[in-house]
Amino acid sequence: MEKFFKNALKVSIASLVISITLYVVIIGLFLLSVVTANIFGTVIRIIVPILTLVTILGFIYSFFIKGKQKIPFLTLHFVSLCALSFGIYLAVSFQGFAP
Predict the structure, then answer these.
(1) Which parts pass through the membrane (predicted)?
(2) pTM attached to this predicted model
């Protein structure tokens, strides 16, 4: 585990894979509608903090990548943070419209 965190590229790749997996879980649960609104809300409350922490960790580790791979990883993590922030903004702004 110690060697894993010393390699910034591996941490950044793992962070992207985990982020994409969590995004797919959120979208999959929403589109399939296999769960009720209460369960979906609980899943969102669990996944969003994990997703935020993993994305921020990957974004920070992307600064320590050496070579030409630095810019794509920084961009991907930044886009992920923007998508997450926009989703949270929409959830907060439309909170009063739902019964």
Answers:
(1) 12-37, 43-64, 71-92
(2) 0.82
